[in-house]
Amino acid sequence: MFEQKKQVNSIVIVGGGTSGWMTAAALSHYFANEKVKITLVESSQIGTIGVGEATIPTLRRFYGKLGLSDLDVLKATAATCKLGIEFKDWHKLDSSFIHPFGIYGQGTKEVDFHHYWLRQRQVDNVYPLADFSLGVQLAKDNKFAVPTTNPESQLEIFDWALHFDAALFAKLMREYSENNGTTLIDGKIDEVSTRNDNGDIKSVLLEDGTEIEGDLFIDCSGFQGLLINKTLNIGYENWSKWLFCDRAFAVQSESVMAPNARTVSKAHKAGWQWKIPLQHRQGNGHVFASQYIDEQAALDTLLSNIDGKLLHEPRTFNFTPGRREKAWYKNCVAIGLSSGFLEPLESTSIALVETAIEKLIGSLHGACYDQTKVDLFNQKTALEYERVRDFIILHYKASKRDDSAFWRDCQQLQLPDTLQEKIDIFLSTGELKRYPFEIFGKDSWLAIFDGFEMYPKAYDKKADNMPLEYLNKNLHYMRHRVQHSANNALPHGIFLKKYCHFEAKEQS
Ligand code: FAD
Predict the structure, then answer these.
(1) Which residues are tagged catalytic?
(2) Is residue 311 part of a domain?
(3) What CATH number is associated with residue 43?
(4) Greatest C-alpha distance within the chain
(5) How many domains, the chain?
(6) Beta bridge partners of 190
(7) Are 418 and 438 contacting, i.e. CB atoms less than 8 angstroms apart?
(8) Engineering a disulfide at 231: which of 192, 384, 447, 496 sits with its beta carbon 3.0 to 4.6 angstroms away?
């Protein structure tokens, strides 16, 4: 029997935060030549969450598909360039390592670079793995250059993302969407009505009595999940047995130095603090586990670790790590915080918005969908969330800190099978197993294993085919090449001033 196809002539997006406007921008671009009406409802009374300023490189691919250039976005959103994340005090107190967006060294056709590095490590003192990553070397020295499009060797390859002002990015996405025909309605939704025959959402009703009907509803209403949760009652898978952090304080401060080309994540006794540099200010926040520290102590920890003057009162957020059991149910697709949340340790929420949008567009060929597409969307979403979850858990489990109950308990975590398997395979063979639908590639996992000094017993024996003397020479050469390229780059602050200076007065 053929499944029933549902035609989509009108789409209603509920919520005008980062996820709502990104969805509107992408859908209005995709449906530019088709008669699909797109309406976005937001409530300026309620506002948006207003945080979410560190991204990963997939964001650049997202706006690139919309025809926006890096420089356009950097300028419009007061953004800085992000080469990775520096993790301070995570492994042990006074430790530091960088997770770069890029690769390490140059392998051969048969063997990945890290196996050669591991071999050398077993026979002799070897240079730190970080010396073979241009991304790390640039980030460490606070330099930046746009990666060359025609690299002579893998040693020149790295990737980058943005730290941006979330409100300015939403504004950019809004302008783009409205130029592509999206209708904005500012109003508070008071009621949501469903169809008696099939349980689909029929319409949303605003405070002033306006009723907005649609064929497909996208729930971008934030944590509450106005449609997916409050109306359709789809449950939430809670992951707090693995991820203890459930609160955050966030505050912006004046910048006191040239912006870093990396996010800084500093571990504290019951959580961690972010520092996100923008061109016109700095974002700061303390993500913490409320069962291990009280709110006042968490706030004091944050405030005593900020250098510049505060620009407003700190804001507080409560969250439950996990994901919606089904992100797409009936004619409602949850995107953004309504579909789940994982703490921003690896800046993955906006990336999960991007993948959700991409999957949604892939499900709407010919402006229609069926249950098979819905099921596939849900399966992929679940896997993407779980892969990110595993990656984040590794940071806690691998820490050697024992200076607080929080860190001691993290070391006792019983891991999800998928993560345990990944660790076991790496530690016994050196192989970096990659699962489908992982946002982070092998080199990201390698960066974390290396940062926490988790090294395997073995490596790919094919690495032994290279004579040791030759291997030594190669490693020496690679390290030199990487450093040479880093030396040639501009200081990050100068790069920004020269190519993408943000002027607040331009943004009225
Ligand atoms: P929101 O911003 O909450 O938007 C909800 C929208 O729904 C608003 O427009 C609101 O007006 C509207 N709405 C709600 N109810 C109604 C109603 N009744 N009627 C009409 N409209 C309504 N992500 C990253 O990728 N990187 C980070 O560094 C990062 N840091 C974070 C730090 C913290 C502390 C938190 C909590 C999150 C962070 N995130 C980060 C996540 C990121 O902020 C969100 O993924 C992103 O902002 C998307 O939010 P949203 O659009 O889904 O929801």
Answers:
(1) 82
(2) yes
(3) 3.50.50.60
(4) 79
(5) 2
(6) none
(7) no
(8) 192
CA 413 from chain centre, in angstroms, equals: 24
State whether 356 and 228 are in the same domain: yes
Q: What is the 18 CA–ligand 1 centroid distance (Å)?
A: 6
Q: Closest by alpha carbon to 356, among 385, 325, 331, 329?
A: 385
> What atom in ligand 1 is closest to the CA of residue 46?
11
Same domain, 185 and 314: no
| 328 and 300 together in one domain | no
DSSP state of 106: -
290 domain residue, yes or no: yes
Whole domain around residue 305: which residue ranges?
A: 247-318
> Helix, strand, or coil here: 341?
strand
Residues in the chain: 508
Co-location of 35 and 172 in the same domain = yes
**Judgement on whether residues 217 and 253 belong to the same structural domain of the protein:** no
Q: What is the CATH number of the domain that holds 253?
A: 3.30.70
pLDDT in tens, the chain (508 residues): 456 899 999 999 999 999 999 999 999 999 998 889 999 999 999 999 989 899 999 999 999 999 999 999 999 999 999 999 999 999 999 999 999 999 999 999 999 999 999 999 998 878 999 999 999 999 999 999 999 888 888 899 899 999 999 999 999 999 999 999 999 999 999 999 999 999 999 999 999 999 999 999 999 999 999 999 999 999 999 999 999 999 999 999 999 999 999 999 999 999 999 999 999 999 999 999 999 999 999 999 999 999 999 999 999 999 999 999 999 999 999 999 999 999 999 999 999 999 999 999 999 999 999 999 999 999 999 999 999 999 999 999 999 999 999 999 999 999 999 999 999 999 999 999 999 999 999 999 999 999 999 999 999 999 999 999 999 999 999 999 999 999 999 999 999 999 988 876 444 3
* 260 plus 233 within the same structural domain: no
Is the whole model's pTM more than 0.85, yes or no?
A: yes
Q: How far is the CA of 379 from the centre of ligand 1 (A)?
A: 23
Give distance in angstroms: CA of 80 to centre of ligand 1.
Answer: 21
Give dist(CA 375, CA 97) in Å, integer: 40
d(CA 162, CA 354): 14
Name 248's bridge partners: 287, 317
Ligand 1, CB cutoff 6 Å, lining residues: 15-20, 41-43, 46-49, 51-55, 166, 188-189, 220-222, 226, 248, 250, 285, 317, 319, 336-337, 344, 347, 349-350
CA 225 to chain centre: 20
Residues 335 and 355 in one domain: yes
